[in-house]
Amino acid sequence: MTKGGNIMNTTEIMKNIAQRCGGDIYLGIVGxxxxxxxxxxxxxxxxxxxxxxxxxxxxxxxxxxxPQAGIxxxxxxxxxxxxxxxxxxxxxxDGFKVNVRLVDCVGFVIPEAKGYKDExxxxxxxxxxxxxxxxxxxxAKLGTQKVIQDHSTIGVVITTDGSISDLSREAYIxxxxxxxxxxxxxxxxxxxxxxxxxxxxxxxxxVVEKLKxxxxxxxxxxxxxxxxxxxIHNLLREALYEFxxxxxxxxxxxxxxxxxxxxxxxxxxxETIANSMASVEKLREVENIAAILAxxxxxxxxxxxxxxxxxxxxxxDISIRNGLYNEILKEIMGVExxxxxxxxxxxxxxxxxxxxxxxxxxxxxxxxxxxxxxxxASLSDIELSKPEIIKQGNRYGVRLKAVAPSIxxxxxxxxxSFEPIIGSKQQSEELIHYLLRDEGExxxxxxxxxxxxxxxxxxxxxxxxxxxxxxxxxARLKLQDILTKLVNxxxxxxxxxxx
Length: 499
Hints:
Layout: E1 2-3, E2 6-7, H1 10-20, E3 24-30, H2 37-49, H3 56-64, E4 81-91, E5 97-104, E6 117-118, E7 121-122, E8 124-127, E9 130-135, H4 136-150, E10 154-160, H5 170-186, E11 190-195, H6 202-215, E12 219-222, H7 229-240, E13 247-251, H8 254-257, H9 264-278, H10 287-293, E14 299-308, E15 313-320, H11 324-333, H12 340-370, E16 372-375, E17 383-384, E18 388-392, E19 395-399, E20 402-403, E21 407-410, H13 425-435, H14 445-448, E22 450-451, E23 454-455, H15 456-469, H16 473-489
Parallel strand pairs: 3-5, 3-10, 10-11, 11-12, 13-15
Antiparallel strand pairs: 1-2, 4-5, 6-7, 8-9, 14-15, 16-21, 17-20, 18-19, 22-23
């Protein structure tokens, strides 16, 4: 995975992790006892932290604080330890600062290990989280919880394939599972390291693959006592990609984005986008987005445009199938457009129609809500008469008179009925049953039903139009005259007699 088109180096990875964690890289090192946790911490400090500490006194103090590492079955770490005790501040060339600290936890006990029991039974140890000593195994569990929850930004589970000591792989499995279950319940990002004397052996590779399949987290094989810069780079990179995705931006053509939300194409895109995002939680999973988007029949291709690992923001570009723009344009316009000349001509007609509609749109909205609406005239429609002098008593003035057409709309419910006489009552009932056969499923079906060779919709429409055309011209003029007087004289009383 890349950032800005280039593979990230270790410094960039550390910066990105620090950005996700408020400037801190705190690694909680957990796992069973006798797997090399202390050895790993010592090697990590030697390779990734101490070389970047400029103060020699501080460096010497940190070296003194490094944990002891041993061989065999005897447990070395009997209480949790912060390494270094005060976080080391690393400043990069560009002035960016990162605080680094590792926490060496008490390991989860395995029966074959030595050192967790004494003559009185399970050994009692002290921890920073309790004033009283507690049993070794309880300290391991509590320490893991406290370290991962309160003192770590990333968890590192260290286990082994059984090649680093005389303890077999089987001895670690139960404690290993207990540690990982604990981390999964906490919910912080973590990775698993398999410490092996031979990282290329078949036995080691088998353990790595089995853990990947079982826990679905990154698993790396390393030799803890010979930790390389490449090992550090890989484990930090894998840890970074375990952080959650904070934001996903889908860049689609703008003409798709402006479609109405109920348009079938936009609904198809929104559904596919929702499905793609549902399968992504971590940064390492963002490649799933492009694959799922490509399954949409209207999407020609998709690719990850940018991945900002420091913020968790991801951008995905999608391209649309060729010819889809023209199809949607034809659907919206209602006519097929063959070239740009036709498009310009059509847009001119539509622009004129829109200007006309804009003058009455407010009236239409009002009439739908209240049954009556009006549209005021635009400035270009107002006719201003020549100013004239007027006299009121001994005083004179000027009259400026203007006339402007206003459009008034009245909602009238027109009734129309169709009453065919077809014969018996049974025949009439059969006709009703025929008309209502698809009621509730297809509302259009009743209008498409044919009676006497004509659609019911045509018969009803003819009846409505007939009634509307029956209003005589004189009555229309009278209604116009009445409205004119009501508006201009401001009178609200109307007496109507309809004969």
